[in-house]
Write a structure and sequence with these properties.
- With 72 residues, the chain is mainly α.
- The chain has a single domain (4-71), classed as Arc Repressor Mutant, subunit A (Orthogonal Bundle).
- Helices cover 57% and strands 11% of the residues.
- It has 4 helices and 3 strands.
- A 3-stranded antiparallel β-sheet has the order 1-3-2.
- Helix 1 (7-14) packs across helix 2.
- The protein is elongated and about 60 Å long.
- The N and C termini lie far apart (44 Å).
Length: 72
């Protein structure tokens, strides 16, 4: 998604609470603060930030499956 959103819009986009989005800001989610009350976040930054939390389970499963298939 292109463009910018405020915390409420980003929370809806991520299916999270506004409080959770604010916690992500403290964890490093990129944002721009125009003034004390106006925080803008790029949707593309949200997608990129969240992709850093991908589970490694699928990678491990794929490696195990590949090794098992090679043994047969």
């Amino acid at each position: 998604m292109d463009g910018w959103g405020r915390i409420k819009q980003i929370a809806e986009y991520m299916s999270l609470s506004e409080r959770a989005v604010r916690a992500l800001l403290k964890q490093g989610l990129p944002h721009s603060r125009l003034n004390r009350k106006c925080i803008l976040i790029k949707y593309s930054d949200v997608d990129e930030f969240i992709s850093g939390f991908k589970s490694e389970e699928n990678k491990v499963d794929n490696i195990v499956n590949k090794i098992c298939n090679e043994m047969v």
